[in-house]
Every structure is written in structure tokens, then in C-alpha cells.
């Protein structure tokens, strides 16, 4: 510090640790990493104590489901980090890297089709922790949604995953009911009776699973679990709605491989300072989709990770 003021170099050094300067002060907000927004009650107690001891006592949630404690003086940052480490907590989540993963509460929600907690924890470990030292052209955000209700806005993230339940329609079991329960329950009007037979418009159907088991004659007794992946979403001053890949993944490992291809492609072919949405726009969606679905980029993984790329990324927070 110079004359009691934090220097730009000092501010930059702690930003990399997840501490962002509070406007007009020498104090900082410490960003604590959560896995899909969950922490234990004991960890919350520890954070509250740390906020009172080393900050201004305020604990707040960010839009990415991380937690920030405000008003931490520069010379108390290491004390704060040491205190929360007792509860297994750490700070971070800044820079031109894969950011902490966000998920909805699909694991416990009545509409949830997939175990969003389990999947987001796996993505967090594999891509947030596993790629922690990997510099990208800009920040890279991933969100996991449990169903097409899109509560966590997966299509506004660089990569978004939405749980699917694809109806398995047994046409032979359809009795042509005059008042079709499936048609009644379909929230998007994809299921319609036509010539005494149920038809499902695959263009309209969003695989929400609401039709599963409602037919009195078991025409749709079950469904196939899947993952729909959107790429190129972004919110902020310039918003972009992500586009879905043409394939609905029914194998989790295939879906995770597509996410890893996206990160590697962004590192290899993205320009420093641009978001993934801009990379996709520049390269063309069709080209990027082909690379993510069946490209050979995973075979070049080590070379891409070892290349001297994006030493100064584009993220400012």
C-alpha cells in the first residue's frame, strides 16, 4: 500500500484470488466458491463469523450462486482466507477461466428430470477444478438445468445443459380417446389427436416429461433421459441466446465430452478478449457444432493446453 491506498498491482494480485475492490474504498468483497450454490450449515456459520471478524458483516449471494463477504480490508484478506479454510472453503471464481458451475434445484424439484446436483458437481470437479490453471480468451460459464422450465437460464451461458425426458410413444397402445389425457397435459401443445390417433410434434415437443404415465392405456408409459446442450449464450451489455446442438445426448459421458470439446475449441480458436458467443459467430455455428459432436479436438488436448495462449485474458472480474 502507498500512503494508505491499495496500489493497482496489489488490487490485481488479490483479484486473482477472488477479491474485488468495493467502489471508492480500500476494502474488498471476497468471493467464496460454492459447488452449484450449496454449502453446509456449518460452513455458513463459519462465513458469518469471518464476515464479522474481517469484513463489514454482510454476506450476499451472487448471480452465479457463489457467496461474497463485503468490506474486507486489504490487509485482512489473508486472515479471512485462513479463517474460512477451517471449514473447507476457498475464494476464487474470477478471471478468464471456467467459472464455478451453476445449477437449479432439479434434484429435489418436482419438475426435475435429472440429478442436477450430481451432474453439476461432476462438471465442477472436471472442468472448474480440472481446468483451473487453463487461461481462456474470456470467462466461460456453465449452467445445468433440470428441465425445460429453464429456471437457471442455461441458454444464456457459454454452455448450458437442460435435462430431457424423451417420451417413448407406443402407437399400438393408443386407443384414440375422445378426451386424450396426454393432449390435455402437454404444456406446449405438441400432443394432438388426429384421425383417432395421438401424434406428437417433435418440433414442438421440449421433452419436459409431463406426459409420461398420464395415458390410461400406457401409450407413453416411460421416457428416455437425456441432455440438451446449448452453446454461445451470454448476458450483459450485449446479450446472446445460445443455440442448441442438434443432438440430444442420452449418454452422460458423451455430453461431458462435448462440453470439454467446447472449452478446448474456445482456447484453441477463440481470440483473446472475445466471449464464446463471438467465437461461434466468427467461426460459424455449423462448424462449431460439428467439432463438438464428432471433432478430433480431444486428441489434441495436451498440445492445446500446453500452448502459450491468452496470457492476458479478457475478463475484468
From TrEMBL:
UniProt cross-references to InterPro entries, sorted A to Z: 4Fe4S_Fe-S-bd, NiRdtase/SiRdtase_haem-b_fer, Nit/Sulf_reduc_fer-like_dom_sf, NO2/SO3_Rdtase_4Fe4S_dom, NO2/SO3_Rdtase_4Fe4S_prot, NO2/SO3_Rdtase_4Fe4S_sf
UniProt KW keywords: 4Fe-4S, Iron, Iron-sulfur, Metal-binding
BP GO terms, sorted: sulfate assimilation
Keyword Protein biosynthesis belongs to the record: no
Residues of the 4Fe-4S ferredoxin-type domain: 165-196, 198-225
Keyword 4Fe-4S recorded: yes
GO molecular function: 4 iron, 4 sulfur cluster binding; heme binding; metal ion binding; sulfite reductase (ferredoxin) activity; sulfite reductase activity
Gene Ontology cellular component annotations, sorted alphabetically: sulfite reductase complex (NADPH)
Protein name: (4Fe-4S)-binding protein
Lineage: Bacteria, Thermotogati, Synergistota, Synergistia, Synergistales
Amino acid at each position: 500500500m502507498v500512503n494508505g491506498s491499495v496500489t493497482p498491482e496489489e488490487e490485481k494480485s488479490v483479484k486473482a484470488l477472488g477479491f474485488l475492490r468495493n467502489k471508492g474504498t480500500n476494502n474488498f468483497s471476497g468471493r467464496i466458491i460454492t459447488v452449484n450454490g450449496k454449502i453446509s450449515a456449518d460452513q455458513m456459520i463459519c462465513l458469518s463469523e469471518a464476515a464479522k471478524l474481517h469484513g463489514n458483516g454482510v454476506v450476499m449471494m451472487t448471480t452465479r450462486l457463489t457467496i461474497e463477504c463485503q468490506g474486507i480490508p486489504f490487509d485482512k484478506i489473508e486472515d479471512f482466507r485462513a479463517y474460512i479454510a477451517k471449514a473447507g472453503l476457498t475464494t476464487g471464481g474470477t478471471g478468464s477461466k471456467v467459472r464455478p458451475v451453476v445449477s437449479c434445484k432439479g434434484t429435489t424439484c418436482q419438475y426435475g428430470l435429472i440429478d442436477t446436483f450430481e451432474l453439476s458437481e461432476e462438471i465442477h470437479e472436471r472442468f472448474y477444478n480440472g481446468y483451473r490453471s487453463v487461461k481462456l480468451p474470456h470467462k466461460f460459464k456453465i449452467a445445468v438445468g433440470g428441465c425445460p422450465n429453464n429456471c437457471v437460464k442455461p441458454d444464456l451461458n457459454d454452455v448450458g445443459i437442460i435435462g430431457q425426458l424423451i417420451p417413448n410413444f407406443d402407437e399400438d397402445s393408443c386407443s384414440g380417446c375422445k378426451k386424450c389425457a396426454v393432449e390435455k397435459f402437454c404444456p406446449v401443445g405438441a400432443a394432438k389427436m388426429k384421425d383417432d390417433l395421438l401424434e406428437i410434434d417433435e418440433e414442438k415437443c421440449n421433452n419436459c416429461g409431463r406426459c409420461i404415465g398420464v395415458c390410461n392405456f400406457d401409450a407413453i408409459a416411460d421416457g428416455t433421459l437425456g441432455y440438451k446442450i446449448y452453446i454461445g449464450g451470454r448476458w450483459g451489455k450485449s446479450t446472446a441466446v445460445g443455440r442448441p446442438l442438434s443432438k440430444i445426448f442420452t449418454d452422460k459421458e458423451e455430453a461431458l465430452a462435448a462440453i470439454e470439446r467446447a472449452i478446448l475449441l474456445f482456447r484453441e480458436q477463440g481470440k483473446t478478449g472475445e466471449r464464446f458467443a463471438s467465437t461461434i459467430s466468427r467461426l460459424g455455428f455449423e462448424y462449431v457444432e460439428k467439432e463438438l459432436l464428432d471433432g478430433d479436438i480431444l486428441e489434441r488436448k495436451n498440445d492445446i493446453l500446453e500452448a502459450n495462449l491468452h496470457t492476458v485474458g479478457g475478463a475484468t472480474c
